[in-house]
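re: ur question from earlier - yeah i can do the single chain one, its not a big deal. heres the input i used so u can compare w yours
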Amino acid sequence: LAATENVLALTQDALGTNESLITIIKESLVAKDGVAAQEAAEAELAATKDTLASTEATLSATQTELADTKNTLDATTAELTSTKDTLASTEATLSATQAELADTQNTLDATTAELTSTKDTLASTEAELTSTKDSLASTEAELTSTKDTLTSTEAELTSTKDTLAATADTPVSYTHLRAH
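and the output i got, formated as tokens:
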């Protein structure tokens, strides 16, 4: 864009120089006598007018190119602004996602710690249950032994009752008792 503006300035300077040349040529035409001098001046004037027309065409083309370049620059600036906005939005989304990830990691860590604690409690409870089962089995064995002893004692008691009953039905001989 700067180079195009420089070309435009140079072209405008050239136009000013060409106009000065035309003025000088006109003045020399008036100052000179004779047909030859006038024809030469008119030929020079025609050449200068051709150069001026060419310079004006170049200036017009340069001005068009400058306008196109400015339009392209404006479009590029708008696109850059849009890209910056998109980048800012993406960075904000990334930051929010990272914060969410950190929160999720904290929740996961807390849940993992809770799970470990629950596993430890479960293991302890299972050990207590096993101990209680062993104690229950021991108590059941003692109960079975006590039942067996009770059954044996009941059998002896029944036998003793039967013996007492049989003895009660038998008359007691005092002679036997006297001898003692």
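The radius of gyration is 64 Å. not sure if urs matches, ping me
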